[in-house]
Amino acid sequence: MLAELELLKSLGADVAINYTKENFDEQPEKYDVVFDAVGQGEKAVKVVKEGDSVVVLTGAVTPPGFRFVVTSDGSVLQKLNPYLESGKVKPLVDTKGPFAFSQTVEAFSYLETGRATGKVIMSPIP
């Protein structure tokens, strides 16, 4: 878990909390923005400053939280490309992949373990 906390800090988080060891919703400190990537949005709203935001990547969304989902026909990726090329945005890809298309079941099984760090990549159909 220490590696994940350090990873979050390297990506720009001011504070990274180990939700498996700390009751973060009981902390006296309040935050400007809380990113919930593990489905604990109800707890996250308890530690965000009034009027600020909780960004929920999975699980239930409790106001003032909102779900962050990106879909694209390619135009969003074209706009994102300069940030990727400059290094301002860094994709986080799990080191276990890429999985071959024939390993689809294994890739999904790996995702279900909750141990993936970043995106799990699959190769296209040959």
The largest β sheet comes out as: 3 strands, parallel
Structural class: alpha/beta
The number of helical segments is: 4
Widest beta sheet: strand line-up: 1-2-3
Average pLDDT score: 85
* Radius of gyration, whole Å: 17 Å
Helix percent reads 25-40%
Q: What is the string of SSEs from the N terminus onward?
A: HEHEEHH
Inertia-based shape: globular
Rounded to the nearest angstrom, the distance between the terminal CA atoms is 36 Å
InterPro entries: AOR-like
Pfam families: ADH_zinc_N_2
Family: Belongs to the zinc-containing alcohol dehydrogenase family. Quinone oxidoreductase subfamily.
Keywords: Oxidoreductase
Report what the structure shows.
Helix content is about 25%, strand content about 15%. It has about 130 residues and is of the alpha/beta class. The protein has a 3-stranded parallel β-sheet with strand order 1-2-3, with no helix packed on it. β1 (about 30-35), α2 and β2 form a beta-alpha-beta unit. The chain is globular, with a radius of gyration of 17 Å. The model has no long low-confidence stretch (mean pLDDT about 85).
